[in-house]
Each structure stands twice: as C-alpha cells, then as structure tokens.
Amino acid sequence: MTTAQPLKFEAPDQGEETARADLYGVLAALFYAPPSQELLSAIAAAPDEGDGVLRHAWRELAAACAGMTPDRTRDEYESLFIGVGKPELILYGSYYLSGFMMEKPLAALRTELATLGLQRGDKVTESEDHIASLCEVMRYLIASEEMSQASVASQKQFFGTHLQPWVIDMCSAIEAHPQAIFYRPVARLAKAFFEVEMQAFDMF
C-alpha cells in the first residue's frame, strides 16, 4: 500500500483534481493515526474561501484543529478506535459489509489492489480495508500518471465497490458517538466529501 504523501495546502484556485487528491490525503492521515501538531496547525491555517456544505465542514474542522493538542487527539483516537478489546468504533470496510473483520470484502479488495500494482507496505499495520488505506488508494488513483488508473471510470469503480456501500454509515457512527469531540468534525467533513464524490460519480 502506498503511504500518505506530505500534505500540502494551497489556494482554492488549484486544480479540482489536485484538491480532491489532497483532501483524500488529509482524511487518510487523520484516520490512520492521531494528528501531529504540524498537521493540526496546517489544517487550522489552511486557506478557506467559498460556501457550501463541504466548505462549512472544512471550517468546522479547522476550528477544531486550532483548539486541539496532539495529546488530546491521541487520547480520543485511542479511546474511539483502539481501546481495550473491541474498539468503540470500527474503521474497516469488511466489518460494515459483512459484519466481521478480515472477511470476503477484504479478499476482493486485495485482488483489485494487485491488479492496480498496489500492495500494503511492510511497515503498515492496518489491513487494506481500513478507511485511511482506502482514502490513500483514491488519492493515488486521482494523482496517478498512469491514464488507465487516473481515469474517472477507474476511480468510480473503486469508490463504488470499496467505499460507497459503507462510508456514510461509518461517518454517522462517529458523529453520533458521545466521546467524539475532535473526530466529530473529521467525520462531518468526510461525510460531506464522500457525498459530493457520490453525486459527481453518479453524473459520470
């Protein structure tokens, strides 16, 4: 699996595809591990213009980042997504698609990743159906210089198969959890973005 690239925040007049890839990268970083102070500061200081649900969600996340510390986000991340025994919240697609971890949806995902020439890195501990890994694959597909991979059709197929059936449920579960303080606006941004992606792919 490719690893998340260094996050870069640019003015809103950047190319739409670059903006999409960057936002997938941001979500991959936030869901993979508790954010560092550098990431919190970068999001809090990122340029912000425009209106709409997605922009409102970004503003909410930026405000949350400005008021957070790495220690507090680490405590919340571990409480919500790691815990002792079964986590409070699950970030793996197989769980939402089949009710269990490490099931057939993961096997199908691994087969498709192999056809794309992708595999999990030796240092990556999470399985490929973790939301962070899937966001990183989408970032890769958007930014890839291989036309067959960067095509909208390829992105739509991967998103529709491995993300669309369950990500809104995951985001809603995070939003509703009483202990989700920092990760509530993260989930709202993710939900708003995924819904925009769904609408765009439906028009393709």
UniProtKB/TrEMBL annotation:
Record's keyword annotation contains Chaperone: yes
The keyword Ubl conjugation is assigned to this record: no
Keywords: Chaperone
Any single Pfam family the record assigns to this protein: Nitrate_red_del
Protein name (record): Molecular chaperone
